[in-house]
Design brief:
Elements (H helix, E strand, L loop, with lengths): L4 E5 L5 E3 L2 H7 L2 E6 L6 E5 H12 L5 H12 L1 E5 L5 E3 L2 H6 L5 E7 L2 E6 H7 L7 H8 L1
Antiparallel strand pairs: 1-7, 2-6, 3-4, 3-5, 4-8, 7-8
C-alpha cells in the first residue's frame, strides 16, 4: 500500500526520484501512464497494471472500447528505475501533467501519482466538501 507524499525536482533529462518508501513495493518494473481527468501521471506496479488491462479487455471490441484501450495504451510507458532510484518521464508525460520543476509524488494506496506541486497544492488546499460525512459512514 502506498501512502504519504514527497517533493522532488525533475532534472533537465526528465528524471525524477522515486521516494525510498515506495521502491520496494513498486518493484523493478512498472508502468507510467497519464492520469484520467486531471493533469497528473499514475505509476502502476505491474500487478495493478495487468489487472487494469484485464478490465479494459473485458469492455469488448466495439468502437468505443477500442478507443478507450487505444488512449490508455498509447499513453502508458513500461519503465524501470535506475540504480539511484530515478525514473525517466517522457516529454509527452511531462507535458500532459504540466510538470516543470518541482513535483509531488503521492501514494494513493495501490498506485502512485505524480503532480506538478503548485497544481496539486491549489487543488488540495481545502478539504473535500463531504469529507466528514464520508468518514462517518466508514465507521
Amino acid at each position: 500500500m502506498f501512502s504519504g507524499r514527497a517533493y522532488h525536482n525533475i532534472d533537465a533529462k526528465g528524471r525524477i526520484f522515486i521516494p525510498a518508501m515506495y521502491r520496494t513495493e513498486l518493484g523493478d518494473k512498472f508502468v507510467v501512464a497519464n492520469g484520467f481527468s486531471d493533469p497528473y501521471l499514475v505509476i502502476y506496479p505491474m500487478s495493478e497494471w495487468e489487472e487494469l488491462i484485464e478490465k479494459i479487455d473485458a469492455l469488448g471490441m466495439d468502437k468505443n472500447a477500442r478507443a478507450i484501450k487505444r488512449y490508455i495504451m498509447m499513453n502508458a510507458n513500461p519503465t524501470e528505475m535506475d540504480s539511484q532510484g530515478r525514473i525517466v518521464l517522457s516529454k509527452e508525460h511531462r507535458e500532459f501533467a504540466k510538470l516543470t520543476k518541482e513535483a509531488l509524488i503521492l501514494g494513493m494506496n495501490r498506485t502512485i501519482e505524480i503532480w506538478d506541486s503548485a497544481d496539486i497544492t491549489e487543488q488540495t488546499k481545502d478539504a473535500p466538501e463531504n469529507l466528514e460525512e464520508f468518514l462517518t459512514q466508514l465507521h
